[in-house]
Amino acid sequence: MNLVDVIIPTYKPDNRFLTSIKRLLAQSVKPGKIIIINTDKSIWDKSGIEENIRELFYGSEVNLYIEHILKSDFDHGATRNLGVSKSDAKYFICMTQDAVCFDKETVKYLLRGMDNSIKLAYARQVPDKRANKIEKFTREFNYPIESMIKSFNERQTLGIKTYFASNVCAAYERETFDALGGFDTGEILNEDMLFAYKLIEHGYFIKYEAWAKVIHSHNYSGITQFKRNFDIGVSQASNPKIFKNIKSESEGKKLVLKTLKYLLATHSYISIIRLIYISGCKYIGFFMGRNFKKLPKGMVRAFSMNKGFWR
């Protein structure tokens, strides 16, 4: 049995994904297997990426597994569960294709905090060098330099952040994962947060491991932020048991105010205009998503980032 495997869903993987694989193969604690669940084999074949990937694995003790699924079959939870089913390791790490290990110790640091109570550890996301000022500050706000252990007892102080655990890069203990039913399926997104909720509610702990770092950031446009936050709103409206009494708006306001303060202090006045625009797009998208049941179906699909979800 391997100690740890890595599971990565892919869609139109590019050179950044190859860099991610290279960094994973260079880890001080190497995964036994890297499992790729790719959406749409036709695009994969046209890109010729498989030859480049297999070349990276040549001579490596790390095994490679690739499985292709139809675009119509993609589901954030089910696709990852499929990847987990191909692993027999004690732990597994879920990553996204655009996350790149910061150094050779990412896997080691993720696993070092796992014990009888901690069943999930997620990594710190540091911004890419191309990230704009707002995105850099957002990453620092959501992924601070101090590690943290979260449990049911933190609900009153942390609010919705109690359940925050991004599987952009996160390690899970397999036995408990299976016992709790894995990732929820049929969700538009937030499968990582919904599983974190199950862990917390069953008395387990989650660790934010700041020493485990991946490079990951996005310079999203206002329209993209609107669509992403629309889907977040849909997710919350679809899971009232979790989100009814725990509001995320206050956390969003705190981020906006702290970002504004930072931009003023650094005299980044053009970025302040962008912050107002982006924040407006986020809030409107989230508000519309929370009320998606009142909207025409065509509008819902147009507003969503994950249009395939509405088939």
From TrEMBL:
Q: Under the GO molecular function aspect, what terms does this record hold?
A: glycosyltransferase activity
SUPFAM superfamilies linked:
Nucleotide-diphospho-sugar transferases
One GO process term, biological-process aspect: single-species biofilm formation
Q: Name one Pfam family in it.
A: Glycos_transf_2
What EC number(s) is this enzyme filed under?
Answer: 2.4.-.-
Cite the InterPro entries for this sequence: Glyco_trans_2-like, Glycosyltransf_2, Nucleotide-diphossugar_trans
Any idea where the Glycosyltransferase 2-like domain is? 6-180
- Which UniProt keywords are given for this protein, alphabetically ordered? Glycosyltransferase, Transferase
* Listed name of the protein: Glycosyltransferase, group 2 family protein
The organism named in the record is Lachnoanaerobaculum saburreum DSM 3986
